[in-house]
Amino acid sequence: MQILLVEDEEPIREMIRFALSREDYAVLEAGDVRTARSMIAESRPDLLIVDWMLPDKSGVELVRGLRRDPLSQAVPVIMLTARSKESDKIRGLDAGADDYMTKPVAIRELLARINALMRRTQGHKETDQLCIEPLTLDLAGHRLIVNGQDVHIGQSEYRLLHFFMTHLDRVYSRAQLLDFVWGQNAYVEERTVDVHILRLRKLLKPFGADQMVQTVRSAGYRFCRLDQGEKKTDG
Questions:
Q1: Can you tell me the distance from the alpha carbon of 150 to that of 203, in angstroms, rounded to the nearest whole number?
Q2: pLDDT, tens digit, for every residue of 45-73?
Q3: Based on the number of CB atoms within 10 Å of its own CB, is 228 exposed (0-12), middle (13-18) or buried (19 or more)?
Q4: Which in 5, 78, 115, 137 has the greatest CB count within 10 A?
Q5: What global pTM score does this model have?
Q6: Coil/strand/helix, residue 57
Q7: What DSSP letter does each residue of 87-125 carry, written as one string?
Q8: 3-class SS string, 129-154
């Protein structure tokens, strides 16, 4: 699991990084909001630990921005701060933080809170399957099953299909798909989306499921259930 630690005080970063690394967490570090936003767009961390007081903007502003952005609105956040008043805690939680700890940081408590938060927000996903007939995405095994048959699928096609299956019946432009699937900092041309759409349809075609991925003229792409796709396909 990858954790982004947003903290401008180097000694605190070193202490937390050391503790998390010993628990086999991959730790990314940012000393300000600007760097944190760039790393979030590029690396898609599983959890954030955010200091309240940062040199360019506050951690509260960072969290508010995360909750407004569809790319990051579901990422769990633990806020760290020297502010111990109840009103400050309420403000941090209202901004979108999932948990709140005051400094000085108690490492064992921090690790316990991380584990508890991940169990609440992501733990159930390890055994989940995402099913839209005839497709099943095994999220734990990272594989595609169609009509009970394992189908080899590339990483980009898997991420694209996962996004589609969790965003049914909505039209997304090529630019939006690049942001959501490849990340905002990915230097990829929009035609790359078309290439991977073609590959995904080729995988699904033997099962009669290629029509689930629709082309919407002058707009982008839409994913529908098979019975809907047969009725609504625009191209």
A1: 11
A2: 889 999 999 999 999 999 999 888 766 77
A3: middle
A4: 5
A5: 0.57
A6: coil
A7: HHHHHHHHHT-SEEEESSP-HHHHHHHHHHHHHHHTGGG
A8: EEEECCEEEECCCCEEEECCEEECCC
